[in-house]
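Escalated from tier 1: 2-acetamido-2-deoxy-beta-D-glucopyranose holo job.
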Amino acid sequence: MLLLPLLPLALAVLGPASASASASPSSPLFTFPNLNVTYYYDVADFPYHPACDAAAGGPGWAQPTNEGSTACGPSVKDLDTNAVVAMNVTWLNQNGYAARLTDLCGREVQIWKEGKQVTMKGGPFFLWEGCQACATLPRIDVSLNAYIAATGDKECFRGTVGGFDVFVMDNFVRRARAAKTLLNVPALAAGFTLALTLALV
Ligand SMILES: *[C@@H]1O[C@H](CO)[C@@H](O)[C@H](O)[C@H]1NC(C)=O
Ligand SMILES: *[C@@H]1O[C@H](CO)[C@@H](O)[C@H](O)[C@H]1NC(C)=O
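Tier 2 regenerated the structure:
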């Protein structure tokens, strides 16, 4: 009993010191402070999170999303990962389809809260989908596993939890298949491509 009032004091003393060692990533390309996190898919769903499955609409709730194609191409089920992050679709598309595929799809995403990075088995997280709701709400969408890793809310009582800083990094975890164009070929193949193009005209 006597120790309890001292605990916050001890944490206050220890907290800033441990957080300052790694308060945020060193050189993110894009920084989105203070976003909410919610979940929208789960590649390995029922029966691992029965309470969340029930909250989300019953076993199999994630199947359509798991199997649907994404802004970056293959579905999360094709990639067999819970590390996909969906972000503001307006931002993702602002420079067009080709730029999205080559410049944004597959970049590492780091999720931090109060100076600590969220990690998950099967990580690191990466950008692979556009989120419609995130164009108007300050939010990212992640897998159920990532939501639990980020929030500790194993029963999905809360659904959406705030206070996360999200960083899109310089490195790629995956690469999307670039849009095919005839111009985008190595010099050696150019003659052949030109001949093929002319033949098709
Ligand atoms: C989504 O991105 C667009 C384009 O960058 C931006 O104007 C808008 O404010 C963003 N939405 C949110 C909720 O941050
Ligand atoms: C974001 O999270 C905060 C804190 O958890 C909550 O109060 C707020 O309603 C959430 N906002 C949205 C748009 O989900």
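The longest helix spans residues 6-20.
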